[in-house]
Each structure stands twice: as structure tokens, then as C-alpha cells.
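Morning. Coffee machine broken again, so started the prediction first thing and wrote up yesterday's gels while waiting. Chain of 231 residues, entered below exactly as on the submission form.
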Amino acid sequence: MIHTEQLTVETNKGSPARWFVLVEGDGAAWLTSTRPPIDPTPKNSAVLELAKTIHQRSKTNVLYLARPCQYPKKTGIKCRLKDWTTERFAERHVDALLGAFAREVPPGSQVTLFGHSGGGVMALQLAGRLGDKVAIRKIVITGTPVDVNEWTRANGFSDLTVENYLDSLRALAARTVPVFALFGDLDSVVPEGFMGVATEAGLSIQTRVLANTSHGQLARSESTLEILLDP
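Came back before lunch.
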């Protein structure tokens, strides 16, 4: 079970519902480079704020997907430390997101997907697994190391568990969905780059660098919102 927040509007019967689905980032910051947080729930989530702003401006359905193990008091879920550290991208967590998506978003809906930081990795995996269940209009990711372990190695971190990721990206590439990757010129956490696995999968990603923008500001940027809302 994962925590979700749904902001809905009434739609005309017989026409496909339009949805924005936003995937949370990795959550609370690490205490030090070797000490993860006890609870990965994000503090003052920029992604949840973005979800509410999109709902207000677009008057469309919005689904916020927290990552597994976040908001444990609301879900009652019990997790192990590795669930939000070394195995935060594991397939069981992709399955959990897919299940939450399927429960809330009707088949045939038109969907714009968003993911921040590690949430972008999950959004890409989710998109590759959805098949023809919905029509994906576009995917927007911010501050995302698309090639996760290219990023970990560049930073001297241990590799993370990422399962069937290449297959998901290949499936997504076959659907020719527009994918936008936004980076901040002041982002020292995930600078522009780390696209190796996307290139291998044949997935075309349009990259943009936002001026005077740090990692934490990407999901709050007006430029990000404009790209999401641009039809």
C-alpha cells in the first residue's frame, strides 16, 4: 500500500478523462552521506504543492503518488531500511505504484506523467509498464538521474537495485511519447547528463536546463509548470 492524494473534477461522460499523475521524489534528505533518514516521508513536499497548483490551474484530475514507505502513519505499512535506500527502485515498488495508478485512473484516460528526482525514474518505469491501458500525452521529469547507476558510480555511491528498467524504457521508446528532462544549472545533486540507459534503449529525451535553479527548486519552477500544462 502506498499513500495517494486524489484531486478530481467531473468530466463529460463518453469523453476520455484527463489526468496528471505526479510521482514523489526519494523523500527526506539523508542525515549524512552515510546515514539515511529514519522516515523517508518528504518534508514540505514540492511535488504535492505542484499537484495542487496543477489542479487549481487546469481544473483537471490530479493523482499524487507517494513512494513506498513514505507517510507510514497514513498507510500502516511496515518497511525495511533498504526499501527506501538501496532497493528504492526495485520492481516490487514499481508494482506498488502501478497498482495505485490502476485503482485511481480509469482505462483510456489521457495522462501526463511527472516525476521529480528518483520519482522520475519510477515515472519512466511506470510509463513503460502501462502499455495501452491509457494514452500518455507526455512525461516530464526534473532533476532525474535517468541512468541511476551511472549517477551512483560518478558520485562514489553503491549501486542501486534497478530491475527490468531497460525493458521498460524500450517499451516506452516504442510508443514515441514525448519525454522532457529538466535540470537546474545550480543543481549539484543531479546535474544534466546520466542518460546512458536511455540511449541504449533508443528512448529520445528532450533536455532543458533551467537558469538559476537548484535541485529543490525544479518542482517549484514556473517553467516546469508551463511545460506540464502546455497542451
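The chain has a mean pLDDT of 91. Going to sketch it on the whiteboard this afternoon.
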